[in-house]
Description:
The protein has 201 residues and is α+β, with helices and mostly antiparallel strands.
Amino acid sequence: MVADFQRRVVELRFIDGVEKVEHVPYATGDQFWVRLNRPLDRRRIEDIAKKHGMALVKFGGLPSKLPRPLAELLWDGVAYVISRGMSGWAKFFVSLGFEPEGVAKIVKDAHGPYQIFIATQEEGVQILYEYLGLKYTPPAPPPKPVATPKPTVSVAVKPVPQTPSPSSVGTPPKATPSTPPAASPPKPEEEIPPPKPGAQP
């Protein structure tokens, strides 16, 4: 996805070789159109794309060879797409005129003799800047969303009265058994001394 459209328009508006800069909104994603006022150096674009691990793929060849009224219904001329990771099947469908998915597209301007560079991803903008000899500055990251703190609600906690357990209701407190005093051992019976002789009873 392309970002910083306003900054890009200001940076490229008066660059030599650029005729017009447009921000074109689409339902599938906004595009950045740069109309050139001189022939595009396809070999140089291809070299820059290779440096970024991409390829310049030609498509629309078969429709362009059809009779003109029919070709206009399918595709108006030949275009190029800057894409990465083109498999064999993708190249086959491209040869039939189906447009591959890429980061940028180069088409012929219907109102002039030169091309329009259409960037659909930020990598396409970077390749365009390098082609025009400009310093590429990546877009600023979007600001992080600030989480709003939730209002704290103070909840009054009521004291919970302690209720006695059902087993303890109606039962008298247990008495601790007291130990009786130790019994003194019984005294032995006193012996009566025998009477002395000569004593009267």
